[in-house]
Amino acid sequence: MVVTRFAPSPTGYLHIGGLRTALFSYLWARKNGGKFLLRIEDTDKARNSQEAAEAIVKAFHWLGLEHDGEITYQSQRDDIYAIYIKRLLDEGKAYRCYMSKEELDALREEQTANKERAKYDGRYREFNGTPPEGIEPVIRIKAPLSGEIVVHDGVKGDVVFKAEDILDDFVIARGDGSPTYNFVVAIDDHLMGVTEVIRGDDHLSNTPKQIVVYEALGFSVPKFYHVPMIHNHEGKKLSKRDGATDVMAYKEMGYTPQALLNFLVRLGWSNGDQEIFSMEEMMECFNPKNINRSASIYNTEKLEWLNSHYIKNTPNEELAELLEAYGLLLTSHDKKEILLDALKERAKTLKEMAQLVNEIIIAPESLDEKAVEKAFKGDAREVLENFAAKVSAADELHLPSDYHHLMEEVVKEMNIGFGKIGQPLRVALLGKMSGPGLDSVMAIIGKDETIARVKSALAQIA
RNA sequence: GGCCCCGUCGUCUAGCGGUCAGGAUCCCAGGUUUUCAUCCUGGUUACAGGAGUUCGAUUCUCCUCGGGGUCACCA
Hints:
The strands form five sheets. Strands 1-2-3 form a three-stranded parallel sheet, with helices on one face. A three-stranded antiparallel sheet has the order 4-5-8. The chain has a two-stranded antiparallel sheet with strand order 6-7. It has helices at about 15-30, 50-65, 80-90, 100-115, 165, 180-190, 205-215, 245-250, 255-265, 280-285, 300-310, 315-325, 335-345, 350-360, 370-375, 380-395, 400-415, 420-430, 440-460; strands spanning about 5, 35-40, 70-75, 95, 140, 150-155, 155-160, 170-175, 195-200, 225, 230, 295. It is mainly α. The protein has three domains: about 1-70 and about 230-315, Rossmann fold (3-Layer(aba) Sandwich), CATH 3.40.50.620; about 80-225, HUPs (Rossmann fold); about 370-460, Arc Repressor Mutant, subunit A (Orthogonal Bundle), CATH 1.10.10.350. The radius of gyration is 32 Å and the shape is elongated. The protein has 19 helices and twelve strands. The termini are far apart. The structure holds one RNA strand.
């Protein structure tokens, strides 16, 4: 069984980069009928893990990504980690190191001065004398000091590290007894049954350390996939400073979950030339072997395109529900269909769409001066008066086509081009030169409001 | 600085020894539309550089350059 996991450290919210690795992990688990687990890496007790977990779960929920089973909190697993620390100590695979912080700093400084790599010198590795007074020892693992550690990575291939280059006896438990990251990650992944670790490639250089832990404990090493970073415009790792990295901010901006997920799945991963993926297709097609090796630059142009694509292709019923989050209650609006049909091809975001709806429903406060100047030339006044009279006289006006017929009548009668009625009417109804089809607009606001807006405009330009 | 990763249009990418180097987005032009948007059609733009290997390299090897990541009693 394929078991994947997403293991964020609780920095507050779910960001784009994290979401992408979570998505990859989720898809791979679902595709294989496996499990997708969530673990909160909150060994840093100063932070509020509960809130962070809730923010992440909330974002997952919005996106429709559900994790399996209970959430694992590292902060609640000290007892478990203690067992493995003791085991390593008992087996002589780890030891207490009584070096003080000051001594360590001094050592590092000296090494740096000599242009050597800063590393622990192993002075307590074989120590069995009397420990110095007043030192709370850290616990270090006996790491191999020579030879190679090979990470068999599904994205990067086999990455070879020389032990002497990168390893030393690193700390697995602090002076206060709390375990450190590289130690608990290995234990948790093993205990949770994780078979494939899909994570950012900033973790690649951590991996040899984790492999040391796996091997010391006799655990089998999972399959790794280190996915390249997402960079900002400057080519640097994406961070909170780069604008909207909070996933929920995309909801506020009016992006649909579908668009965001589709955008992210294609960032660093591809399936031939395919650009549009439904959730089902993602689960069907996703395979980490097609993850790109190089970092990608984050750019929202395609996201916008995808968003408008999905808005266009979302059924009205569903669209009306989505729009509720933007303060638009359309579910029982009698002209909902016409309204949504008229606007879904025009909006890039749901937020924008809500705004466009209001621009139709609510009469313009004032008419744009330039538009008035341009549109109300020649016999515009007569045209509008004629049209208003026809609207007044008609009994049944419901569909856009009903209004369209009236416009056609005026055009024929007065022997003018369509633009001669379209432009002034548009300005009268919407206050500006652009917007959706006028026949739809009129069908939406209805007969009385149409007449009222035309008359009001006529009065204003008198 | 040590170690590691990466390098195809501006951006996301396809390519896996022989292609007019393909698609998407963006941008531009034309068409459709009373307008704007959508939509349709067309167009501009890329193999970082240099050595090899080979009949032939974007593809394989090495070097250079460039970018990124990581080097904690943080995660």
